[in-house]
Amino acid sequence: MTISLRPSQALSLWRDAALSEVKGGHHDLSMRQMSILLTVYLDAPPHTVRGLASRLGVTKPVVTRALDTMGQMKLLTRRRDPRDRRNVIIGRTLEGALYLERFADSVIGHARDLPR
Amino acid sequence: MTISLRPSQALSLWRDAALSEVKGGHHDLSMRQMSILLTVYLDAPPHTVRGLASRLGVTKPVVTRALDTMGQMKLLTRRRDPRDRRNVIIGRTLEGALYLERFADSVIGHARDLPR
DNA sequence: TCGTATTGTTGCGCATCCGAAACAAAGCGA
DNA sequence: TCGCTTTGTTTCGGATGCGCAACAATACGA
To answer: On chain C, which bases lie within 7 A of the protein's CB atoms?
Structure first.
């Protein structure tokens, strides 16, 4: 499946979706945080701090802090790996799933009526 | 022109583009900041603080501070309106245009090879 | 000219973030 | 058991963000 976009369409799509998010008064996540959240929900588990850090090319403290914030927002969870208690397993939440589902719908809607 | 996306494709596209941005070590803009930047570059000028604030549904200080930050990043400029010196006109820069051009290419590239 | 409205900025107290380094806890090999 | 490694968190100083309210500068009508 190939989806063709022209530059102005790509930017319009991003702007419209981000704008809906802002106007909706939801979380104001940075690109780093959004990358982490989406990776947790799109890639196969398990997810660890170390894994996410290397996947994103950022340091571990960055991931730890993003988990602090988004954990407090109930967008994901943290728990110790019982098999290797050094690891922390990052899990999904119902709230996070609903948030991304709604976000995806927003992107889809804006993609549908993009200026030609 | 109608572009059809399924939810997982919408999220993958956003994730891949955001991830490239993060891994590229560029600016870590929030959705609010990105909305402002894109609005300035996509909508017809002139752009004012008040106009952007109402367009985004945020307060004026939010816009002022975003302009502080992105102005320092050279992504846009501020100058007084000579006709009504209460107004501040927000302008584009070469650097901002290049940044968004590159970003658009990234989105396009990821949209092209999206999983079916 | 004088009062009032409009525009953008700043001050306040507080929360979050950064990178780098130090750190505690857990696993593991000899 | 005793280092050594690995994992995630915390600390540090400093930057940035927030909402809300007060503010200065400018415009404009009576």
So the answer is: 6-11, 16-21, 25-28
